[in-house]
Each structure stands twice: as structure tokens, then as C-alpha cells.
Design a protein that fits this description.
Transketolase_CS; Rossmann fold; thiamine pyrophosphate binding; 1-deoxy-D-xylulose-5-phosphate synthase activity; 5-stranded parallel sheet; binds magnesium ion; 41% helix; 17 strands; binds 1-deoxy-D-xylulose-5-phosphate; 26 helices; 7-stranded mixed sheet; alpha/beta; thiamine biosynthesis; 14% strand; 642 residues; EC 2.2.1.7; binds thiamine diphosphate
Length: 642
Amino acid sequence: MTDERLQDPLLDWVAGPSDLRQMPDRDLARLADELRAEVISAVSQTGGHLGSSLGVVELSVAIHAVFNTPMDKLIWDVSHQCYPHKILTGRRDRIRTLRQKDGLSGFTKRSESPYDPFGAAHSSTSISAALGFAVGRDMGQATGDAIAVIGDGAISAGMAYEAMNNAGHLGKRLIVILNDNEMSIAPPVGAMSSYLSRMYASDPLARVRSMAEGVESAMPASMREGVKRARQMVTGLTGSGTLFEELGFDYVGPIDGHDLDQLLPVLRAVRARATGPVLIHCCTVKGKGYAPAEAAADRGHGVSKFDPATGTQAKSSPGAPSYTAVFGASLTAAAARDDRIVAVTAAMPDGTGLSKMASRFPARVFDVGIAEQHAVTFCAGMAASGLRPFCAIYSTFLQRGYDQVVHDVALQGLPVRFAIDRAGLVGADGATHAGAFDIGYLTSLPGFTVMAAADEAELVHMVATAAAHDSGPIAFRYPRGAGTGVALPDQGEVLEIGKGRVLREGADVAILSLGAHLDECLAGADDLAQAGIGATVADARFAKPLDGDLVEALARDHRVLLTVEEGAEGGFGSVVMHELARRGCFDRGLAIRNVCLPDRFIEQASPAEMYEDAGMTAPDIAATAREALAGTGNVVPLSLAR
Ligand SMILES: Cc1ncc(C[n+]2csc(CCOP(=O)(O)OP(=O)(O)O)c2C)c(N)n1
Ligand SMILES: CC(=O)[C@@H](O)[C@H](O)COP(=O)(O)O
Ligand SMILES: [Mg+2]
């Protein structure tokens, strides 16, 4: 190495992973330190998944230094930990645009880089995808090794076991790296988590506990004997292999995932020797190397912008309580009145607001791990037993439990209450986390009641309504973030099922809103009023059963009917169209427009920017109304029609 290069940051010399492969091993640890500092510096400006990314700094360096990416396919599970990987794979110049409008995605994304062979953000998909690449390779496709990196939280989900079961059966060369930091978002739960902890906890075997013999022989001589002894002791002690070995994997580890002196030889040995599926168990620390993250209860899982010197995060200006907090408080109050109320979260007690109820009624809140499918059927069972379960899951993650919603809940008419948070566009997490489809996929189910809260007071009423609803499944959706600041009732009222409400009356246009875009509808009506156009604004409250009489009256009394929803095509607008068709309202020359998410995925930005991109702002609503009105022959100045 030249003197010049010795002084400069090594990271400045890395244009891509092939540069790592030229570096002597002794430089890689220094590079990892610089990479860690770069991640901290970048995320302090953007916010994001800091702790998970800091935990895989050495792993990212080691994998790219050993494997021939992008020919070898590196697949990060969830991929919220991919920031070091992005920096090493030619995206350092844009890393400070992470999670911003027009910037880098916070997750891996196929369209962003050849080093992102598979996109993710929902968990536990990596082993299945990697196995697909392995089969492609063995069937002659131009692709090399397949490496999945999966966390101890993500490996709690059923899909990971389905994949390992299949991989063990196929016996193809496949590398799975278990990144075990003993954390999910919250502390991990369940038997699998306890099993992994036991594997790690039993020092002195903890360093290298069970290694396939082939890998042992490829290890440096200094490590070989210890490794062999450890394996023999473990095998002798337990009399059987690890769970992973039972599934058909060679098991390697646990090893220290921050020690390049362990990571590099193990990865090289596996690369040289593996013939079938191998699982490398790496133990890491979430938030590693940044004291404020390591000290935080969530190990810095998701942070807003922060001061790198202190770790102090930017606080959002004090305002209205979030919908999530209002839900958590309302459910806790309802649970205090009714001991049949229980609640379930799939690894997101804080994100869903259930931690409030859990601290008061710990035996009635169940964190099932990342297991949305099980969460839904578990709730179905509890409902069948006579309990009143609330299944609190983000809209986007409920997608994973859809067959269970259909088969275990709807078909049996069981009164599971679905509290669907993060409805609509969520901001920095982008398209993968958008709550776009639940209105469509729930309203199509016979017997389902589907509500959407226009504000946080409505949410309180919907919690009460759901709690009282024993005659079948019921769902209510509400968005991410702060509410509108409306006064909250002391106690929720039970709403009349299938009845909407009219907030404002006008002669020309009817705007029928479902959910939290009501304020935009009212602002759109204000815009129209300035142009002399009268608008009625109604809140449907229920997408199902729909208030058909209200819809018919709006159609009868106006020339234009707009539906507005924070969801995709095929949702509320479609339900209204069916109702209008059933009631023969199309015969009356009515102009109808559905204001909803367009038929494309919306890239990450602030929620406001995303709704602008979607054409769903208040001025968009007004412009759509004017355009529709112009088409009915009403005299509208052209300048007003957009
Ligand atoms: C299907 C699904 N459910 C829930 C989530 C939310 N989620 C994102 S990361 C995470 C925890 C992941 O833990 P782990 O895999 O151990 O990674 P770590 O953050 O500890 O590195 C959860 C629950 C998700 N992304 N996908
Ligand atoms: C990666 C992931 O799925 C979660 O960490 C998610 O980013 C959390 O989102 P919220 O911030 O909306 O809870
Ligand atoms: Mg973890």
C-alpha cells in the first residue's frame, strides 16, 4: 500500500466490492470502522434503521470481501440493515438521500443496483428467494452462490421454516447466515428465540460450537483443533444435531459476527467446501459501536435524525397524539371494562400501541413474534372460545395473513376485531409499507364489517363499536402519525353499523370520503366554494356494509359524486360503484370519479409528498370535481377545470 493510501480513509478507495477483495485482511477491520462511522453520520441526517445496520457492518465487509457479488447473490432479509451494503456497493455518494423523496430506498431494491438481486422489506423471504437463485444456478442460469442473511427475529416466521424444509430436502448449495442479535424490534419472543439464546449462552462452547468437519479442515490451523473439540463435545453432550442440522443444513457456529478474524475464515471455508445448504450462526450486537444505540431499549432500531455526538433524536413538534396512541389508550380503557378483550401483535407491541395495554394487562396481550398468519388464526380460535380478540397489525403486514383472514375468520363468521394501523401512505418506508390494499381485500369478503376512521375521535368510537360487535369479523383502519387534534370523547360510542354522516351540504358536487382524508375533502370543498360550486361532504365511516341510502341520496341530489379513500383502486370506490349500479343510479347522468391511489406503487417521500404524487391533495380533489362537473354540461369556467 502507498503512503498516501495509508493516510486516507480506506472507504474513499472503495468504488465497489471488488476493491475489498484486493485489500489485505488487516485493512478490512479498519475499513469496517470507517464504514460504521459513515453509517452513523449518514443516518444522523436522514433517520432510519440505524441499530440493525450497525450490527452488520463487519458482516457486510466480510461477505463482499469473500463472495463474488453481484454474480453471487446476496439477499438481506427485511433489508432494513442494508445501509453498510449500500455504501460498499457504489451508493455512498447518495447515502444521505436515504428514505427521502427521489433518494435511495431504505431497503434493497432490484431497480436500484445489480447488488440488490432481490427486494424486500417484509420479513422472512430471504431463504426462499436465495433457494430460487440456487435452483436457477443449477439449471444453468448465469448466477453464482446464493447467500441469505436473516435475523433472529425474521427467522421466527413460518416462511423461513418452509424455505429451510425445502432447502434441506433439495440439498442444493445454499448459504444462510443467521444474524443473531437477540433482538427483533422489541425483545424477541418465543421458543425459537430461547433456543438460539441457549445455543449462544453456553460458553465455553459459544465461540465455535458445531462445525461440519469439512469446514473445520479448511480453517486456519490455529482454530481447527478448538473447533473440532467443540463440535465433538456438543455432539456428545446433546446426542443429536442442532435444529438446523435436523432440517438438512450443515451448521457452523456460533461465531462472533463482529470479529473479522472469525468471519473471514469461516466464510472462506464455507465458500470452498459447501456442497449443500449451510447455516452460519453469527452473534452480533444490534446498534454495535454507537453507545446511544446500544443503550436504547430498541437498540436504535428506527431513529429520526439525531445529533451524532449525543445520539439525541430530533423530536417532532408537540402536537396531537398519534392515532396509534389513541388506539392503545382506547383499547386499554375498553379492556378495563371488559375482561373478555384480549389483543395480539406480531412483533410490534410499540408500533401498534399495544404495549400500553400490555403494561396494564400483561396476561391479555400476546406478542406472537413475526407471525401474522398465526396471529390471525390464533385470534380466530380465541374468538371461537368466546373471547373478544383485537388483532392489531399494520395494513401492509396483514397481507401476509390474508388466507387466514378468509379461511379462518370470514368463512366461519368469527368476531375477530382487526385494528389496522398504517393505513394509506406511510412516508419514508415507501411502497413496501404502504397500507394500500386492505379496503379492497376486506370488503370483498362476505360478512365482514369494514370501517375507516376520519379522525382520532372517530377511532375511539370504532374501538367501542368493534368491542361490542359479536356477530362477525370487523376491521377499522387508521393512518400512521399524528391525529388531527380533535377533542377526544371520554368514552367511545357504539356506532350504528353501516351508517355514514353528512358534514356539509352543497348543491352541485357530493364528496364521499372514507377515512382520514376527510380534511382534504373539506378543504377541497372550500376551494370549490370559492369558485361558486357547492359541495356536500359526507363521511361514509363504513366501507362495508355501505350506507346505500346515503350513497343513493348523494347521487340523486348532485351532478357529480366523488369517492375519496387512502387506498388502492378496487377499494371503497368500487364498493360505491357496485351500489350505484345495483340502485340504477348510473341512468341519471351522474358523473362519478374515484379519488384513490393510482395503479402504480408510490416511491418513498413524506406522506404529503406521496399523496401529491398520487394526485390526492385538496386541490386535486377540487380539480377532479370541476373536471367532472364540466363534463356534465354545467357551465364551469375553463380556467377552473384542470
Ligand atoms: C412480515 C413482517 N412483519 C413485521 C415486520 C416489521 N419488522 C421489521 S424488522 C422487524 C424485526 C426484525 O428482527 P431481526 O430479523 O432480528 O432483525 P434485526 O433488526 O434485529 O437486525 C420487524 C418485526 C416486517 N418487516 N415484516
Ligand atoms: C423495517 C420495518 O418493517 C419496521 O421497522 C418499520 O420500518 C416500522 O415502521 P413504523 O416506523 O411505521 O413503525
Ligand atoms: Mg435481531
